[in-house]
Specification:
With 458 residues, this protein is of the alpha/beta class. 47% of the residues lie in helices and 6% in strands. Helix 10 links the parallel strand 3 (239-244) and strand 4.
């Protein structure tokens, strides 16, 4: 059951947490090169975040030289597991601020912008400089290392099919390896746990080291995480992962993708994991777990639980939501539905794409301006926050208009789980028209229907 808004989220902040959020927004917008408006005479003497900013009046071109570490930031570097502080400094020195800004707003998608920044603050225990370092390093990772929005999600499964038919042997292998994981159902998204969190099932027995390239494994991991993000809706902002260890042997153990997954959640998708369930792990996994646990941040490790049987799994997931493969009552069976030749036709409509992007940019600028007002004017913050909330809703609804023109369709679009306007339906018939059918309620939007649904499209 979906509960109330948790602490440290939009709509449930202490005064100190709100001040930290304002401080992070101040620093973030300056990194992005967003000019602050002329401040009113009655504005606060010093905006939140100024303690982390050292203005450089000599050079307007090098806006990034405005930033220096404060004492708290220096201490945060001591716990810099992934070298993000060094990367942060390199990014400030070399990266175009506008590209970082675009990467941020691309990551926001349908999320609340405050909610995204708050993830980084919570991950860094409300230390603003550490959160800023993590945020900017993540934007650089998305932009340069993985190309999340301009490759992985934009090209998706349809491009993998084309790549698998390529005359280029290397391209062909990557396409085939990516598709192999989808066709196997190595992992898949379905249903929600007792807290309303979308679940990702990982069938570990289907992975064998060396069967797919490391690049395709990493691409598949990012693709799954990004797709799962589309299923989140307030107050639910985290997901559940169930590692089904049935039939596990040492042939299934592969440390490289495990390390990559850990880095993703700890460094680039902070505060995105709600719970990790390791189900029916055999005794040989005990020694492996001791190694993996040593790699985990203690906060992440605390979210890992071992379940030995159906009864223990039911502590986290209603039996009606546990798939029959694991002994539950949900009749769902995974079937991969191949991409359709015309499913991404809207992505060829560049004029509509440009119009929707321009409209979104206009709302983004309004949001940035309203955020600067909210920070500078302590007298009208309630009204300004309402203004920001309204703009955040416009960004959310606007994203779903943009989505079919910017993101390739996935299995979950084809089977009707992800529907027009961002409606999520875990049960019911696949959507066959542009107009979605009335929602059959699910744990994220009600209980599942009594009648078992038909198999996914064959």
């Amino acid at each position: 059951m979906v509960g109330p808004v948790l602490p440290g989220r939009p709509g449930n902040l202490t005064a100190d947490q709100e001040a930290k959020l304002q401080e992070l927004w101040t620093a973030t917008l300056q990194v992005f090169g967003v000019q602050a408006p002329d401040r009113p005479e009655d504005a606060d003497e010093q905006p939140p975040g100024s303690s982390t900013i050292a203005p450089d009046k000599k050079s307007k071109k090098k806006k990034h030289s405005m930033f220096r570490k404060n004492d708290d930031g220096a201490s945060a570097d001591q716990n810099d597991k992934y070298g993000q502080s060094k990367e942060f400094q390199q990014v400030l020195a070399t990266q175009d601020p506008e590209k970082l800004r675009n990467a941020f707003w691309s990551m926001v998608k349908h999320d609340n912008p405050d909610g995204l920044l708050l993830r980084f603050l919570r991950a860094r225990k409300w230390e603003v400089h550490g959160a800023l370092v993590m945020l900017i390093a993540t934007m650089n990772w998305r932009l340069k290392d993985v190309h999340v929005d301009d490759d992985v999600m934009m090209k998706g499964e349809g491009q993998a099919v084309l790549d698998s038919l390529s005359d280029d042997a290397a391209v062909k292998k990557e396409g085939k390896d990516f598709l192999a994981q989808l066709r196997l159902g190595k992992s898949f998204l379905h249903g929600t746990d007792r807290e309303g969190r979308p679940m990702c099932f990982v069938r570990v027995r289907l992975h064998r080291q060396g069967e797919q390239s490391e690049t395709s494994l990493e691409r598949y991991t990012v693709y799954t995480i990004e797709t799962a993000r589309l299923l989140l809706a307030p107050p639910v902002d985290t997901a559940a992962i169930i590692f089904d260890m049935t039939g596990f042997s040492m042939a299934n153990m592969d440390y490289a993708p495990v390390k990559f997954m850990i880095k993703c959640f700890e460094a680039n998708y902070p505060e995105s994991l709600g719970v990790v369930l390791v189900h029916k792990s055999p005794w040989i996994f005990q020694g492996i777990w001791n190694i993996i646990k040593g790699w985990l941040d203690p906060v992440v490790a605390s979210k890992v639980h071992f379940t030995k049987n159906l009864e223990e799994l039911e502590r986290f997931v209603e039996k009606s939501q546990i798939i029959k493969e694991l002994g539950g009552d949900d009749p769902f069976e995974y079937h991969y539905v191949e991409p359709k030749p015309d499913e991404n036709d809207k992505m060829s409509d560049q004029s509509t794409l440009r119009r929707l992007l321009d409209e979104r940019e206009s709302v983004v600028k309004e949001y940035e301006s309203a955020t600067q007002e909210w920070i500078a004017n302590s007298q009208n913050r309630t009204a300004l926050q309402q203004k920001r909330d309204n703009l955040a809703e416009r960004l959310r609804s606007g994203y779903w208009q943009l989505d079919p023109y910017a993101r390739a369709r996935s299995l979950y679009d084809r089977t009707g789980m992800i529907r027009g306007g961002g409606l999520i339906q875990y049960y019911g018939e696949p959507e066959t028209a542009d107009v979605p059918k009335p929602l059959v309620t699910s744990p994220q939007n009600g209980p599942r229907p009594v009648e078992p649904r038909a198999d996914d499209v064959d």
